[in-house]
Design brief:
260 residues; alpha+beta; 2 domains; 4-stranded antiparallel beta sheet; elongated
């Protein structure tokens, strides 16, 4: 009774689908979170009569054949990189990217990670860092006696000193990848480059192909709760239907066993 094992693969696939949806909904308030989408493929087919083979009786070619599919499997979980809406925060060290690109941050082991979470802070040494204390790459230091800090759309960090004089403390760099979905998520809104993502292309905000920096804004999650709930209901119904197939198959086997 292949229907039981086929339906079981459907239940496993929908379980994975629900897990992906649950993660999306859990991160609906996570800064710059990109929703995920589960993708599936059908499994191998068993052919009792291969399409295009010759008929043993008439010597003609079978136009259709007989193939029975063996179910489905999860093939990938794709990251949807559509930009989320920008929310004003009033914090001068909060930065949002309007357009393509990632901020670079330096991890303790010297590895450069990438993020769109621009909720930056100042370290005790005056360095612009993430909420976990990882500095921007390249590093930008704000003088201790700075009266005000302005970061324009081109990423230039303009510091106003106590005497009113202004100086350029550095410039925010951005990074692009040929395949953003190929980045490896490590948690904490951080990503690492992989062979699938390709090497990072470093540029500056407002350059051609790169996004702009918006000071005192943060990018919200691109999760649409209504869409996720709709997909959750569909996954739940598909799971129930597969369970009904197993139940019906079991009843059919019971009927066959009761034949005298």
């Amino acid at each position: 009774m292949r229907a039981m094992s086929i339906a079981a693969t459907g239940m496993q696939a929908q379980q994975s689908n629900v897990e992906v949806i649950a993660n999306n909904i859990a991160n609906v308030s996570t800064t710059a979170f990109s929703r995920r989408k589960a993708e599936f493929q059908d499994l191998i087919y068993q052919s009792s009569e291969r399409v295009g083979s010759s008929s043993s009786e008439a010597g003609t070619v079978l136009p259709v054949g007989t193939q029975i599919g063996l179910g489905t499997r999860s093939s990938a979980v794709n990251r949807i990189t559509i930009q989320g809406s920008l929310t004003e925060t009033g914090n001068k060290y909060d930065l949002a990217l309007e357009g393509r690109g990632y901020f670079g941050i330096t991890l303790p082991d010297g590895t450069v990670a990438y993020t769109r979470d621009g909720s930056f802070k100042l370290s005790p040494e005056g360095q612009i860092v993430t909420t976990e204390g990882y500095p921007l790459e390249p590093a930008i230091n704000v003088p201790q006696d700075a009266k005000d800090v302005t970061i324009n759309q081109a990423g230039e960090v303009i510091v106003t000193e106590a005497n009113g004089r202004q100086q350029n403390a550095g410039r925010v760099a951005l990074y692009l990848f040929a395949n953003e979905a190929g980045l490896e998520a490590t948690g904490g809104n951080k990503f690492l480059e992989t062979e699938a993502s390709g090497q990072p292309n470093r540029g500056l905000p407002s350059d051609e192909g790169y996004g702009k920096v918006r000071q005192s804004y943060l990018e919200a999650s691109n999760v649409n709760v209504v869409q996720e709930i709709t997909q959750l209901i569909q996954a739940q119904r598909a799971y129930e239907m597969n369970s009904k197939v197993i139940e019906a198959s079991d009843q059919m086997m019971q009927t066959a066993n009761n034949v005298r």
